[in-house]
């Protein structure tokens, strides 16, 4: 997984839990290096898109009308790992649909890495709400499951969208079994 150190940490909506910050830096492309031999830097457009996705995601999660349902769903019918993964994938799906409908489809790599940051914040929310306190291992499992849920949902949607030339899915550089982000722990 790549790392773009110019992506700032967004302040967390709450405190405690896994990270203390909601947004990890936006990673770049696996194996890509800049001319100086370092890691690829985010473009200003990627940076702005990342920040907008995080902002919109936090607004969606913490909206007074939706937050009670988000907290309930984090329980995952007794499986908090699945609950966290499903809620995070659902939030990403809503953000992607909204941006696409507005004529600004998000870059899949940017969307994926914003999803990691939002998953971390959702894990913190679950802990603060007394739903579940995630260990580093459980958060990693939820991240992997989020990728699986995302791929399953988008695999079905892509069949119809590709006919219209609109297919969008998590990129190959963002596999379902991605390494655990550094902010967890």
Question: Tags for this entry?
Answer:
single chain, 185 residues, mainly alpha, 5 helices, globular, disordered N terminus, disordered C terminus
Could you write a compact summary of the structure shown?
By secondary structure, the protein is an all-alpha fold.
- Record field, number of beta strands: 0
Q: Helical amount among residues, as a percent range?
A: 40-55%
The residue-averaged pLDDT reads 73
Instruction: Provide the succession of SSEs.
Output: HHHHH
Straight-line N-to-C gap: 18 Å
Give the DSSP E fraction (strand runs of 2 or more residues).
under 5%
The radius of gyration computed from the alpha-carbon positions, rounded to a whole number of angstroms, is 16 Å
- Give me the secondary-structure category: mainly alpha
Low-confidence stretches: 1-35, 159-185
Count of helical stretches: 5
Shape: globular
Biggest sheet overview: none
Written overview of the protein:
The N terminus and C terminus are likely disordered. The longest helix is centred in the last third of the chain and has 28 residues. The chain is an all-alpha fold. The protein has 5 helices and no strands. Helix content is 53%, strand content 0%. It starts with 43 loop residues before the first helix and ends in a 22-residue tail after the last helix.
């Amino acid at each position: 997984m790549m790392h773009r150190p110019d992506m700032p940490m967004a302040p967390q909506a709450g405190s405690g839990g896994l990270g203390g910050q909601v947004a990890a830096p936006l990673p770049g492309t696996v194996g890509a290096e800049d001319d100086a031999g370092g890691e690829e830097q985010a473009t200003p457009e990627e940076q702005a898109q990342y920040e907008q996705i995080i902002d919109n995601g936090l607004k969606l999660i913490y909206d007074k009308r939706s937050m009670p349902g988000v907290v309930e769903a984090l329980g995952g019918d007794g499986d908090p790992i699945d609950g966290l993964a499903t809620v995070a994938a659902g939030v990403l799906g809503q953000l992607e649909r909204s941006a696409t409908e507005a004529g600004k489809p998000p870059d899949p790599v940017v969307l994926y890495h914003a999803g990691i940051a939002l998953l971390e914040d959702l894990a913190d929310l679950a802990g603060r709400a007394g739903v579940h306190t995630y260990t580093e291992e459980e958060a990693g499992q939820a991240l992997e499951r989020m990728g699986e849920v995302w791929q399953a949902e988008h695999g079905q949607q892509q069949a119809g969208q590709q006919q219209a030339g609109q297919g969008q899915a998590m990129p190959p550089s963002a596999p379902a079994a991605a390494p655990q982000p550094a902010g967890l722990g």
